[in-house]
Amino acid sequence: MDTVIIAAAFDKDGKVVSVDIDNAQTKIEFDKALQLTTDLNGEFKTKQELGDEYGMKKASSIGKDWYEQANALADWMKGKTVDEIKAMKTTQRDESHPAVPDEADLTSSVTITVQDYIAGIEKAYNNAVDVKAAGGQKLGVGHSISTSKSKGLEGDKTPSAQVDTTIVVGAFDKDGKVVGTIIDTAQTKVDFDKDGKLTTDKNAEFKTKNELGDEYGMKKASSIGKEWNEQAQALADWMAGKTVDEIKGMKTVDKDGHPGVPDEADLTSSATISAKGFIEGIEEAFTNAK
Fold first, then answer.
1. pLDDT surpassing 80 at residue 44
2. What pLDDT is stored for residue 232 in this prediction?
3. Residue 48 backbone dihedrals phi, psi, to 5 degrees
4. pLDDT range class, residue 134, cuts 50, 70, 90
5. Chain CA centroid to CA 224, Å
């Protein structure tokens, strides 16, 4: 599963002031008997986290690894509006690279195909959260990847590969307090039949939990009658005005197999989802903020 992650901040004129480009390329493998060979408890890193380990530099015509090219693209986006970014001149190098930059100030620094990152910055702008004037000084993104729900062939139960990529974007003021948060999870599942053939359409539209909204279907089973995106938003609202240490001090309980369920008086009626991964995400976002 390739999960493209774009976190961005914009000024009052819609120009990019900060942007983080990343890609969680998570691979799950099966053997001939359709049993999992990937360690589901292993550590899964994004391309930014892999850095030079990703190994593009040797094959790169400009001698730059993926993260270096992504960062160069991010620098190019700064100071531009979404429309200016979408107007980037590109060229098709081959079928796998349909939109390689053809701008004079990018040809020596970016040879990766950029169509997904341009689409991502547009989506980031459309999903942007307003913060107080001069309130947001730094922007960061934190993420975690889980493959624990993947399954091999077992009797009549066919194999499936599932990747849950949790993303937390945080904007922070000069005192390190949260002024804006977006919490989301891309829960991507690919199914196979008993012979190992794909039954999932790889060209289908895959949505995050926020994008699914009521389609996710948690509301009926929720003890508080709220959908996942509503609960995630309530948690994000609760984080506003707090430092990471204050957020980490949240009172929680383990409930019905869900670790770290909020036990704060102003959250018990609005969030029953496990907050553990989101708290870790906002801490990582603060650590990465720039």
1. yes
2. 98
3. -65, -40
4. low
5. 27
